[in-house]
Write a structure and sequence with these properties.
The complex is a heterodimer of chains A (about 120) and B (about 110). Chain A is mainly beta. Chain A contains no helices and eleven strands. Chain B contains no helices and nine strands. In chain B, the strands form two sheets. A five-stranded mixed sheet of chain B has the order 1-9-8-3-4, with no helix packed on it. A four-stranded antiparallel sheet of chain B has the order 2-7-6-5, with no helix packed on it. The chains are: A mainly beta (about 120), B mainly beta (about 110).
Chain lengths: ~120, ~110
């Protein structure tokens, strides 16, 4: 199946700094990518929809100025957590549906574990 | 998208069939039933999807009731590696582009030796 990668797989940063997480579709193009956040023992929560060549769409309650999303190409979306705080520590996961006729699947990245100290 | 209800947890003996139920009583005619699973600390993995007919692939079978208000995911011969959280999601089919997936709490399946 199609592969989605994320980088880094884990990161530790100090409070107040910014962290960038990359999501890449390795063998297919995706005009849309999704970003999720998952806290321990909880389900995935959709944060935003990343759209290639246009602004991201954020879910209600997600601060767009804090979680900056850029979808610069058909294979790359980035999520930047600005001025990170300990409460931003979480597992961040991206997903991408391929631009393929008849495709109904979404492929998920392996996730990035962010720890803010 | 319609809301789904799943049991919080289930146990299954290794080698036996695991039957995971999902209720989606408010499903609309153009909404598909999707199943994903998430093994601990990994990204979710697509399992199967269906509209109204039963479906089978190399991983599982999906049985959808005639009124489409509920469905069951069947893992025919569960192994220890099938231990995961299983999510039933209902949404409009994606066509060329899958729409966003809204995850509920899912069912935590434990396969025991």
């Amino acid at each position: 199946g199609a592969v989605v990668s994320q980088h880094p797989s884990w990161v530790i940063c100090k409070s107040g700094t910014s962290v960038k997480i990359e999501c890449r579709s390795l063998d297919f193009q995706a005009t849309t990518m999704f970003w999720y956040r998952q806290f321990p023992k909880q389900s995935l929560m959709l944060m935003a929809t990343s759209n290639e060549g246009s602004k991201a769409t954020y879910e209600q309650g997600v601060e767009k100025d804090k979680f900056l999303i850029n979808h610069a190409s058909l294979t790359l979306s980035t999520l930047t957590v600005t001025s990170a705080h300990p409460e931003d520590s979480s597992f961040y996961i991206c997903s991408a549906p391929p631009v393929l006729a008849g495709s109904y699947e979404q492929y998920f990245g392996p996730g990035t574990r962010l720890t803010v100290t | 998208d319609a809301k789904t209800t799943q049991p919080t947890s289930m146990d299954c003996a290794e080698g036996r069939a695991a039957n995971l139920p999902c209720n989606h009583s408010t499903i609309s005619g153009n909404e598909y039933v999707y199943w994903y699973r998430q093994i601990h600390s990994q990204g979710p993995q697509y399992i199967i999807h269906g509209l109204k007919n039963n479906e089978t692939n190399e991983m599982a079978s999906l049985i959808i009731t005639e009124d489409r208000k509920s469905s069951t995911l069947i893992l025919p011969h569960a192994t220890l590696r099938d231990t995961a959280v299983y999510y039933c999601i209902v949404r409009v089919g994606g066509g060329n582009q899958g729409g966003k997936l809204i995850f509920g709490q899912g069912t935590e399946l434990s396969v025991k030796p």
